Amino acid sequence: MGILDNFEKGLERAVNGAFAKTFRSGLQPVEISSALKRELDTKAAVVSRDRILAPNSFRVLLAPADYERMTGIGPTLVDDLNQIVQQHAAQQGFQFAGGVAIELVDDPKLTTGVIQIDSANVQSEVSWMPVLDVAGRRHPITKARTVVGRGSDADITIDDTGTSRKHVEILWDGQHAQARDLGSTNGSQLNGRPFQRANLDPDSVIQIGRTTIVFRIVPQTAPGGRGPSAPGANAPRSAPRSAPNGGTPDAGGFWR
């Protein structure tokens, strides 16, 4: 489940454009999701009998204090907001001109607790990027081999004395991902189970020391292209979740 699932059962107060919060605890993610859904409902336009077009590009303007709190949650927040927008559009029968893009923007002109949504219809095409979410930071996987550890020579360096200098590596061939423990002192776990070498599915969780690493495949939108295919149609597929040592490599070069 995404981080907004629990919030979705609560607040549903929103108006188009901007609204003031009424909770002393501060702005909550569900207030942003409510504003985005209301923006979809308000801006959706009937193009033809079978086509209702809704905006797919959103700038969420926040006061500096709220922006700092929301971005402090990490990139998962935008992932969940993106999913909520797509789910709401599907429920309402809305269609998009391209992939959904959501950006949180720091706007010093706004007062704390006020949200403003700027939206537009933007033609775009969707590509899919593998990433590692580590300690609230997102690291795109751009190489065939990405090493994670506490050493300065690791591709992703983490501040965790419970990990080895080169603890684990992520292998990526453009379609499939695999994790391999590099002979670490304290070992590694994948989805709660120790492993030496294993294939990765999206949202797989790797634990090394006190550090949690989440492997994800996230959509990237580029303006000017054709609309996207059905969700996930062009997304890279990962190999089966686990692979014991000494297994037989599949067509993608990973172990079954």
UniProtKB/TrEMBL annotation:
The name under which this protein is listed is DUF3662 domain-containing protein
> Which key words are in the record?
Phosphoprotein
Return the InterPro entries for the record: Cell_Proc_Reg/RNA_Proc (IPR050923), FHA_dom (IPR000253), FhaA_N (IPR022128), FhaA_N_sf (IPR042287), SMAD_FHA_dom_sf (IPR008984)
SMART domains, per this entry?
FHA
Pfam families linked to this entry: FHA, FhaA_N
> Iron as a keyword?
no
Question: Region Disordered: what ranges?
Answer: 220-256
Q: Where is the FHA domain?
A: 146-195
CDD domains, per the entry: FHA
Q: Where is the composition biased (Low complexity)?
A: 228-246
